[in-house]
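Replying to the earlier thread about multi-chain prediction with a worked example.

Input:
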Amino acid sequence: MKVGVLTGGGDCPGLNAVIRAVVRKGVQEYGYDFVGFRDGWRGPLEGDTVRLDIPAVRGILPRGGTVLGSSRTNPLQHEHGIRRIKENLAKLDVEALITIGGEDTLGVATRLADEYGVPCVGVPKTIDNDLSATDYTFGFDTAVGIATEAIDRLHTTAESHMRVLVVEVMGRHAGWIALHSGLAGGANVILIPEQRFDTEQVCAWVTSRFRASYAPIVVVAEGAMPRDGDMVLKDQSLDSYGHVRLSGVGEWLANEIEKRTGNEARTTVLGHVQRGGTPSAFDRWLATRFGLHAVDCVRDGDFGKMVALRGTDIVRVPIADATARLKTVDPKLYEEVGVFFG
Amino acid sequence: MKVGVLTGGGDCPGLNAVIRAVVRKGVQEYGYDFVGFRDGWRGPLEGDTVRLDIPAVRGILPRGGTVLGSSRTNPLQHEHGIRRIKENLAKLDVEALITIGGEDTLGVATRLADEYGVPCVGVPKTIDNDLSATDYTFGFDTAVGIATEAIDRLHTTAESHMRVLVVEVMGRHAGWIALHSGLAGGANVILIPEQRFDTEQVCAWVTSRFRASYAPIVVVAEGAMPRDGDMVLKDQSLDSYGHVRLSGVGEWLANEIEKRTGNEARTTVLGHVQRGGTPSAFDRWLATRFGLHAVDCVRDGDFGKMVALRGTDIVRVPIADATARLKTVDPKLYEEVGVFFG
Amino acid sequence: MKVGVLTGGGDCPGLNAVIRAVVRKGVQEYGYDFVGFRDGWRGPLEGDTVRLDIPAVRGILPRGGTVLGSSRTNPLQHEHGIRRIKENLAKLDVEALITIGGEDTLGVATRLADEYGVPCVGVPKTIDNDLSATDYTFGFDTAVGIATEAIDRLHTTAESHMRVLVVEVMGRHAGWIALHSGLAGGANVILIPEQRFDTEQVCAWVTSRFRASYAPIVVVAEGAMPRDGDMVLKDQSLDSYGHVRLSGVGEWLANEIEKRTGNEARTTVLGHVQRGGTPSAFDRWLATRFGLHAVDCVRDGDFGKMVALRGTDIVRVPIADATARLKTVDPKLYEEVGVFFG
Amino acid sequence: MKVGVLTGGGDCPGLNAVIRAVVRKGVQEYGYDFVGFRDGWRGPLEGDTVRLDIPAVRGILPRGGTVLGSSRTNPLQHEHGIRRIKENLAKLDVEALITIGGEDTLGVATRLADEYGVPCVGVPKTIDNDLSATDYTFGFDTAVGIATEAIDRLHTTAESHMRVLVVEVMGRHAGWIALHSGLAGGANVILIPEQRFDTEQVCAWVTSRFRASYAPIVVVAEGAMPRDGDMVLKDQSLDSYGHVRLSGVGEWLANEIEKRTGNEARTTVLGHVQRGGTPSAFDRWLATRFGLHAVDCVRDGDFGKMVALRGTDIVRVPIADATARLKTVDPKLYEEVGVFFG
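Result:
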């Protein structure tokens, strides 16, 4: 049996761990052959492949990024996209596809599986942790770790100069990274996209923190927005991951805090460093187990499914369930964390 | 209301995060007063206390260890131990105890709560992750991260000299640290206490790895034992955490591998570095949430309970459930990981 | 004898190590008393002091920032500034001042020492490493380490998406951080303030890198400028360290590269994280030795001097020598490193 | 021109950075061809080579170990060893050898160059930093960083349990790693091979530290010895780097401290993790510059020379000078650091 593998969307620490696990188990236990498709859906669309066997996955476990490359190519937006994919798969004798990706990549997989009978198995991937049906996605823990370390560092700078530091972290639609890294980093304010923030309240927290002789750290998700709706965004171009970028909330907020409280405020935008580099041990563990279970789905002929984490178990869920709605931060959880604000 | 807090047993990254969360929420939301007891059960036994208020928990979130100190004092083994604790609590007007500890510490809490009516809430703590009723305990992720980084480092040394490297990690009764760090670190053999290992099989894996022109890394839990029972232990004294130390398995195994395969082999015993230093973001998150929920148990008068992680939720379980049996590695999980051996 | 200590200018990892070493040696070996002045020159100007004895310096070695606080207050710009400092020192019986700071802070110390007879000893501090008369300043190694780790992380993102990544690092007037972190991080282009860059040449390097199937990393010091002088700066306000901020070179360059080469390009501005957090072992070593030797200067009555690193020795040089001119990157060294461009 | 490259002795972070720099500059600027010899002197002795061109050195900068492999093979101890090397070099048209190694490896290079006319250039390599004629060797900074991080971690464990922690670090003949990591890690006692220690004095320091309510960290180089000469060594076998291993000083000392002071004491032997993994930014910088200058020596026909660091300059010195005597810790420097003991 020949199995294709592709990685789509933004890169994410742990992708290589999935690929390695899929190949190691598939070759050693089930005798499968593998074909790597290059750059997400572009690979099967254009028949662009890369060798994928045991030697090809040696030493890739601790490496960030993806040895298969990635892209945002959507075959549904290409003429005869699906037909070309089916033809290319047939030409290569590929009988099943393991697709590792987020909402978009898996959305294509769902349609391929459901509407066109292409046997697909999904592996969830989003550094933002905002995919339903799984407790966590790999890459998230690494991103939170990087952001937390940065916040740890910024504390000493804030204290030395008694200055507000606003840290903008990833999270366009969901505040998971902000929430986790903000809590772990001892932030005094955490702002997430799920709840529009009240700039006056933020300033009150900042002021009360200074009154206790400490300098405040404000962690803000890139997608957070003020309640008062008066934020002038500096830039609304498409970002590097293909979405409209509502950038600038960090800088905007630092300016507002300076203006309204009279305290010096600075911004740090963590940016791409959050998604690069070697995955954390947790992410290697999760990604590897996702890979092992994905190849089991292929063996069981259990297509249209995605592997997912539930507690400490890896389970299978319909791909469609995972992409149906975004997993956002529960208001109760946000409230729980709110005890540390101010 | 006045609430006592103590930390017992071996130190563990995240203890300070629990203490901080308990105090921040207890003081700010419920208006509690807190008393810190020094060095685990020794504190209430001898009436040795430490101030525990908001200023006392400032800045401790990222710090390893415990500001309260710890010990293995067991009041049940002291004459009138329980009576003295009850008297000391009464003298201090302490109406509830939050006890943060492992099997032993929580075992005392259970008996205090059940048999003597001392209102206790438990927070699970074991770096080995071997406590039932909770998906994970804090400190474990940090330990796995440190061990994984060490294994990453050892790979390059092993390859440069084509030499076997045996890494002995923590885990006397359960192989969780070995399993997670071994998988994450790309180890070629992982040996855990739950399954006696076959030294010949280990040597076969080592040899096959060399045949593929790679140098093997063997990760072994300190409590792992050979099936053939011929291990001569160099030392059976009480270890630093009060248990009989079955030490030397790493060194023993390296010697056996050298003798049986003719390959050079070296051992690294990671030791105490695994449990020290700043907690990982995951552990800060988990420990903080445990602390927040523990103080909620006090508010609800829900005593004899322990907070626990289930998926992404914090739940309450009877303390007795958690200490009834050790959580060991499921044979199926060990088999799942076995695809990477050799 | 009573000795004052102050830290001025931007915070820098290692400041606390200097303070600790000064106090430990001064108290233990010479029986000195110490007075900490708060927030740089603001302290002696306003008589704002902080207790500085052995307990006050416990545990501060690994902490970033400065326990004394810092500011950019320049007493020469305050009416009767010098007189007020002399009066305050007299009032407190302070007979010598150890001033830890950069060009500006030490410049004030020189004038105080030379013109007004205030006995000052200088300890050089600049994260940018651009102070003459010393091989290295502490904080620089930490900053280079943080930037290098970030560049390491960005490589995998760049490769996965075949995209140019521009990393803007600190260095307004000197390119030391860019040069060291760029070389250590395997950057394909490094741009420094000392030499205006040719945007066409940068684009040629980028293109040649892609031709070899690798994605380029461009490291650019914040003070680097294009030769063609056509850079439109987005912002020329005063930055957090009191200088005119010629910001935006990273973003400007990424845009130019996109326009001129057709390759996708992204920017990461590392910002404040480079100067925060725990100092590297090298910086703790250097800062500690600076502190030990500074207090020896006081004992020897050797005022108007600054401690400096020459090879592995700590020497004393006139403060004025160190502040006379900026230490910039030697064109020969830049050329040496140029072998890795493209 | 064809140039051979080999790496001998123990592995060391930065070896790959040297190799990469040599090849990048040699190929690009001078048009050289390169031959890699496998496993130190074993390579030229047996004619065992590995391809060494630009693609072969891609991506190796951040990787520990050596892509050429290493060994302790000494051709002078093999029959006709020198003749065979000369024959093999001739057969391969190799006209110059760049030998990267420590005392032993460079010792062979000296004799080859001096007595047999084989044109050699040396690059110094010792993780212990004990080679004369150079301020620092690469690998040392990485090892110090790893040891310092471990000591940082151990502090919290020591404090939580009020227990002595003895940390045994590398350094058989010179105490550089102990001195630097001990100072940077805030150790309370540092013991080095250059000065036999007085166990009673160590115990006095330990006791005085406890009296101040802090738990002591004792850093001891593996080659340190008690003055009283009563240390019973557990093992005198050849160690992994071919020297007699005077192991066990850490464990011995912990036992003595327990016996003599009554305080609980534990040992951590850092071992191989100190020499593995990714090199620090400083080591990448130094190793790269060593490589660039070594290939310049070849171009200049300047054989029998070794590159060395003096301040911030790379200079050339006769190889013989570097291997003539060990660079040990100056008693004055040790005394300087002694202010922190106890």
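Chains D and A do not touch (no CB pair under 8 Å).

Feel free to reuse this layout for your own posts.
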